[in-house]
């Protein structure tokens, strides 16, 4: 695939180039942070130098100005706001005490990210024991959270829904000293539908621009500093920035326009001394920049991005083959596989962790062993909270493992040493693509990403290109030919279609046998099939024209779930949706009528 300019996509940068581009040529101490904190960052957390984004953001955060940061995934945004907050809190006179309640509030989109940010906050306050970090989030015990809030939490990390709940119902929650509100992964918070909760939170805290607070718990003299961080920008983030930030300093929005030093694109006189007209002018400029940045996604330079074109029926066999080849190439690997639904995660987790197979001749059943020998974890929003925590912590601490997940793992999670991201089901918006691939190639490390596409979906590549994301084709045939069939490596043979390749055919037979063997597995496969089709019909906007359910062969989709027959169990709501979609399409293009694949 070539970019719009007609030039081939630029080669990914080497690891050294990636690191050079990522890190600033200064020390943490140069940014104004306390020597004890700097020593801790270096000695205990092994952070020798700040990343560029940290070098730009930390002085601004220390200066007390509102700030909007847009930076590629895995560039160290968390430290960019937590380090200055810890610095300013440790200096505070009188010393911060638990009875003073919460000084800093960090809003995050998911429970896992909540735990992750809490972990980093804990490390940062190690030498300042009087600063207490804590978290509140969905799925946890409310009464225990209330007790912790009553005792006092200086830096509170929270998911929006649960925080709003406590703001409304926990009388002992003291936030009259609140100085910072941070929106980490602001785009994800909003994409997950927390927009209304966030607005209510801002109103409750008296931090919504133009809306005076009715809340008597808010200290009148407290100077608020709001910080918004995001890997991608869009209309919703733009709106949140407008209602929550006052004359923010922009960081990472436009490299050309980025000034040196304190990165203040609005000049130095951007305080409340400005007239209304001047403020309007600034806002216009700010919004212009935000809009300008919509199409320009930042991805780590050293990330290798590829796609593999796979016919629908062979998708699962190809996924298994790619995974096997990755682990044969390097035994110690960490891979994340993204899927569209919770049911699909459960099914694929079962297949990937339990499928057995005989590597010798087909009838040699005694020699059966696991097709993939590494540990496989799963993560999705319908899991029990305890299982979710176990998966998150378990995958994080393994050296070699696969994580099968919905987009819940796409938001800001920092699993160490993930080398490979597989998007088995396409993401929706291009921004989702950016978040998913951002789980690898972090902090200058190498990383690869592979997107599965059916031949009918290849236009998605054009959509990604509109956002400056270019992918090259993955040489799957080569990988395929390296596998033995019936114990023998194939001779160089004529090109045959993927579905007819002996390795794929034999793997598909094993899969179908595996699924058919147990009723429970069959049910998992059927449920996964139904939810997958539902998710496919739910693509929005322009993507509806690419991911068209009417172009799918549902029998082939069933095959990709190891089912010999297409389940007739597709739920009523799905049927209604399908009819609605058909009607819509008829209305849009009456001339181009196509038949939906018939159900058996
Ligand atoms: N200055 C530094 N030197 C070395 N490693 C760092 C530095 N700052 C952060 N890191 C590490 O880099 C990784 C990525 O950091 P972080 O999760 O904050 O990135 P991010 O920009 O928030 O990514 P995302 O947008 O995906 O959430 C973490 O493992 C963190 O410990």
TrEMBL record:
Biased composition regions of type Basic residues, renumbered to the chain: 577-600
Keywords: ATP-binding, Helicase, Hydrolase, Nucleotide-binding, RNA-binding
Originating species: Paspalum notatum var. saurae
Reactions this protein catalyses: ATP + H2O = ADP + phosphate + H(+)
Cross-referenced PROSITE patterns: HELICASE_ATP_BIND_1, HELICASE_CTER, Q_MOTIF
Classification via PANTHER family: RNA HELICASE (PTHR24031)
Any one GO molecular function term: ATP binding
EC number(s) recorded for this UniProt protein: 3.6.4.13
Protein name as catalogued: ATP-dependent RNA helicase
ATP-binding among keywords: yes
Motif (Q motif): 26-55
Organism placement in taxonomy: Eukaryota, Viridiplantae, Streptophyta, Embryophyta, Tracheophyta
Pfam families, sorted: CTE_SPB4, DEAD, Helicase_C
InterPro entries: DEAD/DEAH_box_helicase_dom, Helicase_ATP-bd, Helicase_C-like, P-loop_NTPase, RNA_helicase_DEAD_Q_motif, SPB4-like_CTE
Function statement: RNA helicase.
SMART domains, sorted: DEXDc (SM00487), DUF4217 (SM01178), HELICc (SM00490)
Comment text on domains: The Q motif is unique to and characteristic of the DEAD box family of RNA helicases and controls ATP binding and hydrolysis.
Residue span, DEAD-box RNA helicase Q domain: 26-55
SUPFAM superfamilies recorded: P-loop containing nucleoside triphosphate hydrolases (SSF52540)
